[in-house]
Amino acid sequence: MPTIRLDNLVKRYGAVEVLHGIDLSMEENEFTVLVGPSGCGKSTTLRMIAGLETVSDGEIYINDKPVSHLEPKERDLAMVFQDYALYPHMNVAKNMSFALRLERRPKAEIDQKVREVAEVLGLTPYLHRKPGELSGGQRQRVAMGRALTRDSATFLFDEPLSNLDAKLRGQMRAELALMRQRVHKNMIYVTHDQIEAMTLADRIVVMHGGYIQQQGTPEELFKRPVNKFVAGFLGTPPMNFLDADIVERDGTVWVTGKGFELALDGEHADAVRAHRAKQITVGIRPSDLSFDPDAANENSFELRVIVSEYIGAQSVLMCDCGGQQVVVELKSETPIPLGETLRFSVNPAGVHLFDKESENAI
Amino acid sequence: MQRATLNRMTPYAFMAPAAIVMVIALLYPLLYMVWGSFRDWNPAQTIGETEFVGFKNYITLFYDPAFRESLSVTLRFAVIVVSVEMVIGVGLALLLDRNIRGMSVLRTLFILPMMIAPVVVGLMWRYMYHPTVGTFNRWLKSIGLEGVDWLGQNALMSVIIADIWQWTPFIFILALAALQSLPRSALEAARIDGATPWQQIWHIKIPLMMPVLIVTCLLRLIDAFKVLEVILVMTEGGPGLSTEILALRISRTATEFRELGVAAAMSNYLLILLLILTAAMFAYTKIQEAREARIRAAAEEDM
Ligand SMILES: Nc1ncnc2c1ncn2[C@@H]1O[C@H](COP(=O)(O)OP(=O)(O)OP(=O)(O)O)[C@@H](O)[C@H]1O
Ligand SMILES: [Mg+2]
């Protein structure tokens, strides 16, 4: 099984550069997830690996062999397209077996394979329909099926579950996780969905504006984001950011902003001292804020509740803290008094500090 | 309830004037021709003065060897011309469907022949085919070959070549338009699935272009059955009857032989032929669709 390496990969459309030197190396059989906001270049990266877009600069290596001049079929990969890209004139079975039929595999083997995959994807009743007679979600599953019938060394997925309903998406995610354990292949997966990214990935690559912001295991990215963008991008509800000043008093480093004051623990204090920052942005995830009326002053917040969104077992509260918005979560049993001020304690390990200018983590 | 009826009728009321004009403009000449084909009619008479002869014109024609020959020439001409034009036109479109610099100029050049008036095309080719001073024979002789008797023994072939030259661009531009409206992503998927360029053409492009190709083919066939000017100018149907296509024979029957009734009957034969052809094409697609639907229904019942 090959490893895949992108070396300073650049893509230009005319004068516009949309990828500015992507360096990425994927280990053997790794499940790599590319995430990032719309238009950041995820699909472009994937399509360049597939060989559907020319490489403007840099090189793609598969197994240390440069492949950017090779046709897609010579790169031994299967792909699920963001817009399905089904063959409109073939029925589902024919769509899924096209590659196998081109390889002139025995008919029995093809039928067997198609039946297997269709069963997993819940497509058995639709095998004889044309794509035009299917719903968006069914088409997406056919697109998925077309890739899964093949045993390529590398699988590329471009938002393969984006059109499925919540239940089906959960099922398919589990299916993918299972498949990942069963078959050992390189998988590169583009998604907007954080849960997909977190649950499936060996390595997450966060992209923004044609640059890689950070890559690493889901845990690394979640716990130690390198900048404000990555911190805000991963996690739902997203991290709260508050502007604050650094003040040192009686040997303790304090972060003070409008309407709050937090004492930093030793580790954070050292970092701040080393960085000599005065103006910073504090980031705290909603999950690191807990409702605690008796919390000590130096590691808690007073928050005035503005809006509450009921989402089942939890409620998400939008609160005001000296003119800045803070989102917290609360068990739904707790009565939620709109307009009242509640005290939330902060998990000291969950405090993230960013330079206000560069937005890099301190 | 009245109101509902009124609402339902409104669109028809608005469409009525246009529909009436259409019916008159379309059907009147047609009926006139059908009516005329049952009469012994010479151009000096008004249709009222003519004598009703029943199916006599049709029957005479049916046993008339000259008409049969003309019909067979027309059929050969149309079938050969359209098949060759389809192959070359679609082939060129497949070849030129790419973004290379200068391609738009090339495409424009390709469709030039279609813009020339048929009479001019006829004259042009007639001079190029001229046995002694024509371009082709002079060229053949210059490289030491025998000249070809273009508009003599080989008249039908020569006429066919001229028609192919003029009408291949028609198929080319329609095929190109069809190609460029194909879903690009399906072709990309085919590349990922490992299809070679030939396999992409064969398994993806051609099947997806099929609806357009069928209509194009039909339009060309209808046109080929009615071709007149180019052949009139080039050979006037000769030598003998070798290039006397139906349209030419019809016009000669009406003007030279002064038998309008027979000419009308001949036109009706042509019309019936074209109707059958069109119906057959559409029936073919319908039957195929129905067959697929049946297979699908059977398969889904098994579940
Ligand atoms: N053919 C093209 N010509 C010019 N610019 C393009 C072209 N294709 C894509 N782009 C630009 O490249 C950038 C990256 O596009 P890409 O499709 O990779 O985004 P993405 O990350 O997949 O977004 P999404 O999540 O919405 O699918 C976008 O800003 C887009 O406008
Ligand atoms: Mg995309």
Q: Most extensive interface: pair and counts?
A: A-B, 29 and 23 residues
Radius of gyration of chain A: 24 Å
Could you state the oligomeric state of the chains shown? heterodimer
* Main sheet strand line-up of chain A: 6-7-8-3-9-10
* Portion in strands of chain B: under 5%
Measured as a percent range, the helix fraction of chain B is over 70%
The total number of structural domains of chain A is: 2
Structural class of chain B: mainly alpha
Beta-strand percentage of chain A?
35-45%
Question: Main β-sheet of chain A: number of strands, strand sense, barrel status?
Answer: 6 strands, mixed
> Per the principal axes of the C-alpha atoms, what is the gross shape of chain B?
globular
The major β-sheet of chain B equals:
2 strands, antiparallel
Total count of helical runs of at least 4 residues of chain A: 9
Q: In angstroms, what is the radius of gyration of chain B? A: 25 Å
- Name given to the CATH homologous superfamily of the largest domain in chain A: P-loop containing nucleotide triphosphate hydrolases
CATH architecture of the largest domain in chain A: 3-Layer(aba) Sandwich
Instruction: Enumerate the spans of chain B where pLDDT stays under 50 for 5 or more consecutive residues.
Output: none
The helix/strand series of chain A, from N terminus to C terminus, equals: EEEHEEEHHHEHEHEEHHEEEHEEEEEEE
* Annotation field: number of helices of chain B: 12
Question: Could you name the key traits of this structure?
Answer:
heterodimer, A: alpha+beta, OB fold (Dihydrolipoamide Acetyltransferase, E2P), five-stranded antiparallel β-sheet, globular, B: mainly alpha, MetI-like fold, two-stranded antiparallel sheet, 12 helices, 2 strands, 76% helix, binds adenosine-5'-triphosphate, binds magnesium ion
